[in-house]
Design goal:
single chain; alpha+beta; 4-stranded mixed beta sheet; 3-stranded antiparallel beta sheet; 9 strands; 15% strand
Length: 278
């Protein structure tokens, strides 16, 4: 079942980001959660592949990956060795894939939930942060996948660990059916992946509606709705905590984006200035 929590105050935000579980085995507090932030509460949980290719996603996916590898292999010869690496590198550069992005950090998810290409939209629509429990998702996996995680003392797969179990999309889809999916940690190909604390879910072709799957198969999935009235407050708080484009997108693009928001003049601020100078 999916729970919905409406956040209309900074206190609600602080409660979300401080939620951890005590792990008695190691006597430490560790979060089992992955987070995904989106700027519009009406956006659905869906992959870039499904959004781009609609009902032809399964048919077109092999062609997308084959052509990506053909043209990108000169920049990364290792791409031919793994369909999972093709997928993750491609996703990182905007290729439509079956991967769904997550982050371990609720602050980073809040950044994506409170970022807009048009800054005026921050005050015009509610945003959303999704949260899933990695332990709960792992319990749905086929036994051989669970044993692989246990033998590696891991909670998420690496490319190599997954390739030992399923080296092709066909094998993976057969193993998962419509009952499970793998969470995987991408290789640290650049600083952006590291800074965003990124993870991916590999959605099998048997799961057509991710939200419906989570609603029927999980009990800890939470949908946090960030009300539009506090989005600027959350945005300014994140910038004060140094969680912004300059850090999450290292380079001149992130710096420029960060400065644009820092010096952005809100509509009510502009009207106040006009009154002051009038």
């Amino acid at each position: 079942m999916i729970s919905t929590v409406v956040i209309d105050s900074i206190d609600g935000v602080m409660k979300m980001i401080s939620d951890q579980e005590y792990n008695s085995a190691i006597h430490r507090r560790r979060s089992p959660y992955f987070f995904r932030g989106m700027p519009d509460v009406n956006f659905k949980l869906t992959t870039g592949l499904r959004r781009n290719c609609k009902e032809l996603a399964a048919t077109l996916e092999p062609s997308i990956l084959r052509n990506f590898t053909k043209y990108a292999i000169g920049m990364d010869p290792s791409l031919s060795s793994s369909v999972w690496k093709q997928m993750m590198v491609g996703q990182h550069h905007g290729l439509p894939t079956r991967l769904l992005d997550w982050t371990r950090s609720p602050l980073i998810a809040l950044h994506f939930a409170n970022s807009e290409n048009d800054f005026d939209k921050l005050a015009r629509r509610d945003s959303v942060v999704w949260r899933i429990d990695e332990n709960e998702i792992n319990r749905l996996l086929p036994e051989k996948y669970l044993q692989a995680l246990k033998s590696d003392n891991a909670f998420v797969f690496s490319i190599d660990a997954l390739a030992m179990l399923a080296s092709t999309l066909e094998q993976y889809d057969a193993d998962m059916g419509d009952s499970a999916f793998v969470n995987i940690e991408p290789p640290s190909v650049d600083q952006r992946i590291i800074n965003q604390y990124s993870f991916f879910s590999i959605i099998p072709s048997g799961i057509g509606d991710i939200e419906d799957f989570l609603d029927k198969n999980t009990s800890h999935t939470t949908r946090y709705v960030i009300k539009k009235e506090i989005r600027w407050d959350v945005r300014d708080l994140l910038d004060q905590y140094n969680v912004g484009d300059r850090i999450l997108y290292p380079g001149l693009d992130g710096l420029s984006r960060s400065l644009a928001r820092h010096y952005f003049v809100k509509e009510d601020q502009s009207r106040d200035e006009e009154k002051h100078h009038g």
